[in-house]
Amino acid sequence: MTIQGDPNRLWISRRQLLGYSAGAALATAIGRVPGAAAAENLGAVTQEQWTPEFIGSIAGTVDVDTAAECAKVVPLDYKGRLTYWYVGPNQASTPFQHKLEAEFWDAFAKTYPNITVEKQSIDYNEIPNKLRTAALGRAAPMVARLMLLWGCEFAAKGFLQELKPEDVGYPSSEFWPRALRSATWKDKTYGIPTNNETMAFIWNADLFHQAGLDPENPPATWDDVVAYSKQIKDQTGKQGYGLVARRNAGNTPYRFMPQMWAYGGGALDEAEPNPTYQKILIDNDGSRAALQAVYNMYVRDRSVPVSALTNAQTENQDPFIAGRLGMMISHPTEYATMLDRAARATGDDKKMADAVVQNMRYGLIPRGPARRAVVFGGWNVHMFNPDVVDGDFDADAARAFIAFSTGPEWSTKLNWEQSNPGNLRGFRTKWMKQRLEQIKFLNVTTSMLPSGIPFPVIPESTEIMNIIVPDMMQNALTEKMTVGQATQDAAKKIKDIFSPL
């Protein structure tokens, strides 16, 4: 693999504004024909078009017959056997998640009563290693559902079969292009998205007011975040922004990479329309500007928690609910978390917590000079190669199950509280309409999806994002290195991954 650094290149946004009127944009996004043909256009909707209002306008506009759609792929009377590994609800999951899980399996059994399913729900931190061991021992399941980046490693090792939406009856246009990219290795697709998610920017409107900021308007740019964070600290004594810089914690790249991409940087060229993953950009002007902005907040202004070097997002929750933190990035479930914390508080703590919940706001993640960006997360479903599967591989049973679980109905229902449907037609269903009515701020986090960027789809991505990027941040924030030295060091470490001694 050839890696080429280009430290001076500042990438432009991959989408140019088209200048459409609101009516033209809506017509472009929806299309002029009903049903599946209309859904084909959603993957091309820009951030400017994919607004909370637009998401609400399309919800509940199509009906779905899951059994009829699956029957076109595999007859409903098919008799077979399936083995399936996944990360299911656990003790920390809500009762509603467990209820939906039970309803899913009951519905599949009714749709395909003659397919026997042998399923294993495995802990999030254990499933990658268990699958590695199983595949090497030729004891892997036929089908597995994996976090967006894990599949790349298994595909690179030859453990997965090629699998694309058309194999189970859906056009690829019913899925986000960048979601499909996450399941692609060397130009071949090895999986189908089950759900996709993005985060949003959260702020305390009352703390904004105390600091002399407009309580209903979040920072528009990352430069504004630095300025707002300083103003909150200077005017109130409270911390402005919930910086996360912990090593070997996924929370760190999920919150710093959107900032780096926004300034025109990246680890590799993952933010570009057609990434090659052969260019190191972590030492370019944009990456240095993003790291400098973080340095300014932590070292120069001291407007973020001093514990940021060891903080994950959970460490931001206590100061936020106590009214001592002004801004942070998180999922729509953060609101439910704050509601729960407020319900369990007592005395003066409860008064403060209730006030914070009342003043909690969600908005788009700020822009940078190059783009608005957010990490594109989610999960994909994969089929293992028959050579590494325990027993005979039942292709039709696998295809029936994947068609059922990645369709608009269950890709919406199964991800009710925490994510979004992988199948774009799910956004048009009655279930999406119900979700929008029930889950506060879901429309805002969902509206970030067109700005989503997957981490580099390479086996080395976890080391880059969870180790090298946080180390770079810590080297600069502890002043062990200058900003320029820290980005140079990170670039060398990435290069060494691909060119080991």
Give an overview of the whole structure.
With 501 residues, this protein is α/β, with parallel strands linked by helices. A 6-stranded mixed β-sheet has the order 3-2-4-14-7-15. Strands 9-11-8-12 form a 4-stranded mixed β-sheet. Helix content is 42%, strand content 13%. The chain contains 21 helices and 16 strands. α14 packs antiparallel against α15 (347-358) and α20 packs antiparallel against α21.
Question: What is the topology?
Answer:
Layout: E1 4-5, H1 22-30, H2 36-39, H3 52-58, H4 66-71, E2 80-86, H5 95-111, E3 115-121, H6 127-136, E4 143-147, H7 150-156, H8 177-182, E5 184-185, E6 188-189, E7 192-197, E8 200-204, H9 205-210, H10 222-236, E9 239-241, H11 251-262, E10 279-280, H12 285-300, H13 314-321, E11 325-330, H14 333-344, H15 347-358, E12 360-363, E13 374-375, E14 377-383, H16 395-405, H17 410-413, E15 420-421, H18 430-438, H19 442-446, E16 452-453, H20 461-477, H21 483-498
Parallel strand pairs: 1-10, 2-3, 2-4, 9-11, 13-16
Antiparallel strand pairs: 4-14, 5-6, 7-14, 7-15, 8-11, 8-12
Number of helices: 21
Overall morphology: globular
Number of strands: 16
Relative strand content:
5-15%
Key phrases:
six-stranded mixed sheet; four-stranded mixed sheet; 501 residues; 16 strands; 21 helices; 13% strand; alpha/beta
